[in-house]
Amino acid sequence: MSIPNETLRKVFIELQNKIVEDNRKLTSVKTQIQTKEREKRLAELTKRELTTLDSDTRTYKSVGKAYVLLSTN
Q1: How confident is the model at residue 25, as a pLDDT?
Q2: Which of 27, 58, 68, 73 has the fewest CB atoms nearer than 10 Å to its CB?
Q3: Nearest to 21 by CA among 10, 13, 33
Q4: 19-33 b/e with 16+ CB inside 10 Å = b?
Q5: Which domain holds residue 24?
Q6: Are 67 and 60 in contact (CB under 8 A)?
Q7: Could you give the C-alpha distances from 16 to 4, 12, 29, in angstroms and in order?
Q8: pLDDT tens for residues 8-61?
Q9: Domains contained in the chain, number
Q10: DSSP code at position 53
Q11: Which pTM was predicted?
């Protein structure tokens, strides 16, 4: 019992489309991971910089168009 060529062709095309779609999703996820890793490195660098400041140093956080005074503790 053999499977007709047309059926095999349809299955093959469906699999190819699925692979293309999955590769596209994989690329998107890899990009998101790289972005999050970059954000993590920036946060770690900022934290390291803030820990070296004296306790009486004024620090500010941007909130919209305003800045709010924060303590470094």
Answers
A1: 98
A2: 73
A3: 13
A4: eeeeeeeeeeeeeee
A5: 5-70
A6: yes
A7: 19, 6, 20
A8: 999 999 999 999 999 999 999 999 999 999 999 999 999 999 889 888 888 899
A9: 1
A10: S
A11: 0.66
